[in-house]
């Protein structure tokens, strides 16, 4: 069986004797296709040591050279992204067009990082004091760890590593053990692009590997994306050992539909954002908040469109693929059971799986619930599957109160034709990323991606200028060269004049 192993010092290394392994499956067929090595603490430590050894030379590599490698990586990725998309579909299950979209959104961050020279420019002040000048620089941190989730095996690592590497850091990526092959493919691409050995490292593993990264004194920063409990754990443990940490967590994204909205647009948006990637997106819409007067019509439009979706193997021209594992499929099905038990109206039952799906695959059909109440587990929990809940409210104010009371704050959207209502929503909503008639408002690479509340632990969002700041530290230099004034001994605090 094929084994996916670690990438250390510019090449694949064999799993050490006595290694633990996890199975990799094709979720569309249920077939075990490979195994992935789970790193021990010793393997992680040796990976970190190789990154730390590569850091000083990479930090001192000119911006011109670093940037040329970034451009080469971008060109290779652009030419060969179809290969990466196929790998993603075979291990994650999302349909090929969606996998390609993920790679393209990651590529945008690479393109952003190609402009690193401009982004790292400091400031200069002449004559801050008499014949004294001041300038600022931003310098890389050292070794940056990235710990990523299963649902975007290429894009989420690319939220971070292009910026970290361009800024002069060495990166150690610990991808999800459920779909690890994309990380090794990207590591090979870096080698082809001319990145020096040790600057991009991949260790595969589970909690043992994550803990080794969090506890290593040689790791300077941690960028984590995953579920909220693990994000909180990583943030607390990482900061306790003195690291800079950004930990992006789970989500429960709402879409508020006002009576004046274009209901066809809103229904299309709810279907696309609710069931795309089988709901396994941190920006998926899972709660449609419908003002009562249009709720019946909206639910009918969503149901009508959802019935047309083709469910099946993501590599074979389907609209929606399987869930990532059998265990996750069963967990999501359990939420559908709970929704029925708690009295929500089941409009479409995803437990009845289409015959276009392989019975050995991890499939559910799209599920639509109406009359969902905020105390039901299908509303309170992040299901991370193709289950859309419609919550009915009386007014805009009730809608905004509901969304702001939710402990998550990743993404949200309003559907309306009233500019004033939209502007109020932008201003009042306590969520990090907001769409107006746009259901999945993922920011462009030159803006920053991040949620509020339980969707982010730490202060800094991913990529954009916040990302550049995360992967660098500021330094301010005060200089006197010409005509130094010997003011003699003066123990007072230095003042300017
Ligand atoms: P997860 O939390 O199970 O795993 C994320 C990473 O943490 C993986 O690399 C995994 O190996 C590691 N991990 C798992 N258990 C651990 C433990 N006990 N100790 C230390 N490390 C551990 O998340 P997932 O299921 O892979 O991904 C789905 C979750 O990620 C969802 O909650 C989703 O909302 C979230 N997500 C959030 C964003 C965002 O931008 N906020 C983006 C993508 C995904």
From TrEMBL:
<dbReference type="Pfam" id="PF00171">
    <property type="entry name" value="Aldedh"/>
</dbReference>
<feature type="domain" description="Aldehyde dehydrogenase">
    <location>
        <begin position="19"/>
        <end position="477"/>
    </location>
</feature>
<keyword id="KW-0560">Oxidoreductase</keyword>
<keyword id="KW-0520">NAD</keyword>
<dbReference type="InterPro" id="IPR016160">
    <property type="entry name" value="Ald_DH_CS_CYS"/>
</dbReference>
<dbReference type="InterPro" id="IPR016163">
    <property type="entry name" value="Ald_DH_C"/>
</dbReference>
<dbReference type="InterPro" id="IPR016161">
    <property type="entry name" value="Ald_DH/histidinol_DH"/>
</dbReference>
<protein>
    <recommendedName>
        <fullName>methylmalonate-semialdehyde dehydrogenase (CoA acylating)</fullName>
        <ecNumber>1.2.1.27</ecNumber>
    </recommendedName>
</protein>
<dbReference type="InterPro" id="IPR015590">
    <property type="entry name" value="Aldehyde_DH_dom"/>
</dbReference>
<dbReference type="GO" id="GO:0004491">
    <property type="term" value="F:methylmalonate-semialdehyde dehydrogenase (acylating, NAD) activity"/>
</dbReference>
<dbReference type="InterPro" id="IPR016162">
    <property type="entry name" value="Ald_DH_N"/>
</dbReference>
<dbReference type="GO" id="GO:0006574">
    <property type="term" value="P:L-valine catabolic process"/>
</dbReference>
<dbReference type="InterPro" id="IPR010061">
    <property type="entry name" value="MeMal-semiAld_DH"/>
</dbReference>
<dbReference type="GO" id="GO:0006210">
    <property type="term" value="P:thymine catabolic process"/>
</dbReference>
């Amino acid at each position: 069986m094929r084994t996916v192993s670690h990438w250390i010092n510019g090449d694949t290394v064999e799993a050490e004797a006595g290694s633990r392994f996890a199975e990799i499956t094709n979720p569309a067929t249920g077939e075990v296709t490979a195994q992935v090595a789970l790193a021990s603490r010793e393997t992680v430590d040796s990976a970190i040591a190789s990154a730390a050894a590569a850091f000083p030379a990479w930090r001192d590599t000119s911006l011109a050279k670093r940037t040329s490698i970034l451009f080469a990586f971008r060109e290779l990725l652009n030419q060969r992204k179809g290969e990466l998309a196929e790998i993603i579909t075979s291990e994650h299950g999302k349909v090929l067009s969606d996998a390609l979209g993920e790679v393209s959104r990651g590529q945008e961050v690479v393109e952003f990082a190609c402009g690193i020279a401009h982004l790292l420019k400091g400031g200069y002040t002449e004559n801050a004091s008499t014949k004294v000048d001041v300038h600022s620089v931003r310098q890389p941190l050292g070794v940056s760890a990235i710990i990523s989730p299963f649902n975007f095996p290429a894009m989420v690592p690319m939220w971070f590593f292009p910026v970290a590497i361009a800024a002069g850091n060495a990166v150690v990526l610990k991808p999800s053990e459920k779909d690890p092959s994309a990380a090794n493919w990207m590591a090979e691409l870096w080698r082809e692009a001319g990145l020096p050995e040790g600057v991009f490292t991949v260790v595969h593993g589970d909690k043992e590997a994550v803990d080794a990264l969090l506890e290593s004194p040689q790791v300077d920063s941690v960028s984590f994306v995953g579920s909220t409990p693990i994000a909180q754990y990583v943030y607390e443990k990482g900061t306790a050992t003195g690291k800079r940490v950004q930990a992006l967590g789970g989500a429960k994204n709402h879409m508020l539909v006002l009576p004046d909205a274009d209901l066809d647009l809103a229904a299309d948006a709810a279907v696309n954002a609710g069931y795309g990637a089988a709901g396994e997106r941190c920006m998926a819409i899972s709660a449609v908040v419908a003002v009562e007067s249009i709720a019946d019509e909206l639910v009918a439009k969503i149901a009508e469109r959802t019935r047309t979706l083709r469910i099946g193997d993501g590599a074979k021209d389907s609209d929606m693929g399987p869930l990532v594992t059998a265990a996750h499929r069963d967990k999501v099905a359990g939420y559908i059971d709970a929704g029925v038990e708690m009295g929500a109206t089941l409009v479409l039952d995803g437990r009845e799986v289409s015959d276009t799906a392989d019975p050995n695959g991890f499939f559910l059909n799209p599920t639509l619930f109406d009359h969902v109440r905020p105390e039901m587990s299908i509303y309170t929990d992040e299901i991370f599957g193709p289950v859309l809940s419609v919550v009915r409210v009386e007014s805009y104010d009730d809608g905004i109160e509901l969304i702001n009371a939710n402990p998550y704050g990743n993404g949200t959207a309003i559907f309306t034709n009233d500019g004033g209502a939209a502007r109020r929503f932008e201003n009042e909503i306590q969520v990090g990323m907001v769409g107006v008639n746009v259901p999945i408002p993922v920011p462009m690479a030159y803006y920053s991606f991040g949620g509020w509340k339980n969707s982010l632990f730490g202060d800094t969002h991913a990529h954009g200028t916040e990302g550049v700041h995360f992967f660098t530290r500021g330094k301010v230099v005060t200089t006197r060269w010409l005509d130094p004034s010997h003011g003699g001994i003066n123990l007072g605090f230095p003042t300017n004049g």
